[in-house]
Amino acid sequence: MEIGFAQQCITPALPAGLAGFSKKRIAELVRDDLYVKAVVFQKGGKWYGALAYDLIGVDGLLIRCMKDGMEKMQMNQENFLFTATHTHSGLGGVLKTAEGLLKPAEGIFLQTDPVMLEFIAEKSLLALKEAVTACEETSISCANSSLEHMGANRNRQDLKGNNGIAAVFLKQKGGKSAAIWHYACHPTVMGIQNKRISADFPGEAAARMEKHGYDMCMFVNGSCGDISTRFSRRGGQEEELLRYGHMLEEKLLEMEGKARPVEINGFEIVHKAFRLKIKQAESLKKAQEKLYSCQERLKEAKQKGVDGPILRVLESYKEGAESGLALAQNPYSATSYDVPVMFVKVNQHIFICVPGELFSELSNPFEDGMTHFIGYANGYAGYFADMPAYDSFYYEALSSPFQKGEGEKLMLCVAQEVKKISGKGGWICQ
Questions:
Q1: 110 neighbors 21 (Cβ within 8 angstroms)
Q2: pTM for this entry
């Protein structure tokens, strides 16, 4: 196939607000740059591709900023995947927080910055143009493996998580190469105390792979709503980022050596929207009581000298209670939300692209080697948590905009659609 790829730096002028934690953080230093990375190819006279951002998320605000520019390049946005790595040391102000699902979480994602969005959109269009210009005959090879001792369920160590890692290696006839890798894990190695711009472990892995001759290394996150490095981290932020980067470097090079050539014989894109119920806010009094309870539990744990990972769990409960209080103060005006899901079938593999933080506990039953989940895709609607998370008072469930049981409902809808798509064949691009 003729494939093109390119990247553009989206590191802003400093100081800049960082998104991802309830604590206010202003970055005045850059640890490593943020990028938008693009991959494109043409089939049947139409352009298809993906853009991956070193951001907390992407939604319709950024995508709409690019619409006119992409149309001038004869690109239909429905044929593109827009996804974010979900680094918690990237820019704030890139999501819609003035109203809608994210209004109660404005403290985490920051007030929308239209100037920043325009800047990122311009860089994205430039990356697409460069990728189109760089299109040439490209060989494709793929590999699957597992990566232990990095990501794990961040609330309960006894739960499975998902250690599967996959990679696609692109080698152009002219000599340029790119790696696209997929893994499910929150990029939060730099942590809540960090005040430097960073793409976190996806950025460190990319920098290392570029030293091995790769012109671009793109990370695509999976179902990591309940997966992070919380229980595998040790030591300081910088040392840990270097350690994780080395771990990923070794794994990707190992996979490169085992990768097998692949030909794309079938391709299909289907867009569906599934309506989920939005939770109703608790009374202000009850929300305040929950927050007080969480604060007391955290205070008691600190007095007892509880170890770091467990302390972080309790801190996340407090953050969830803070989200509940914010919702009580700013209740949702809607009672339901249409969740847009993109299904991409490549040969017999189906990629399910979800606009938010899907729990691995929900997606793991689908993992059969042929079905794969991509998170933070084509929008951001918050957490899709399973019912036990609501029963256990987890941060993710408390901050989710959806009612208990709606995560399971989404998976039921997804299963029905996968069954339909898996029975089709040939090139069907909608």
A1: no
A2: 0.93
CA 171, 177, 182, 183: dihedral to nearest 10 degrees?
Answer: 130
Cα separation, 395 vs 111, whole angstroms: 22
Contact of 215 with 177, CB cutoff 8 Å: yes
Residue 110 has, within 13 A of its CA and on its CB side, a CA count of 25
Alpha-carbon Rg for the chain, nearest whole angstrom, is: 21
Distance (Å, rounded) from C-alpha 346 to C-alpha 363? 19
| SS3 assignment, position 98 | coil
Tens of pLDDT, residues 96-155? 999 999 998 899 999 999 999 999 999 999 999 999 999 999 999 999 999 999 999 999
| CA pair distance 116, 121, nearest whole angstrom | 9
CA distance 160 to 256: 26
Q: Does 331 sit behind a cis peptide bond, omega within 30 degrees of 0 on the bond before it?
A: no
Question: In whole angstroms, what is the distance from residue 208 CA to residue 241 CA?
Answer: 12
Measuring CA to CA, which residue among 161, 154, 205, 158 is closest to residue 181? 205
- Residue type present at position 253: L
Can you tell me which residue has the tokens 């827009």?
A: 82
Structure tokens at 344: 């991409």
* Location of structure tokens 């014989």: 265
In the block, tokens 């404005």 appear at 106
Q: Residue 377 has which token pair?
A: 């895709």
DSSP string computed for 258-273: H-EE-----EEEEEEE
Residue 107 φ/ψ, nearest 5 degrees:
-65, -25
Task: State the virtual CA torsion across 195, 196, 198, 204 in degrees, nearest 10.
Answer: -110
Which tokens go with 125? Answer: 């269009």
Residue 255: pLDDT over 60: yes
Q: Measure the CA–CA gap between 201 and 164, rounded to whole angstroms.
A: 16
Tokens of 205: 């892995």
Phi, psi of 144 (to 5 degrees): -125, 145
Closest CA to 187 of 375, 10, 322: 375
Name residue 197's beta-bridge partners. Answer: 30
Q: How far apart are the first and last CA of the chain?
A: 20
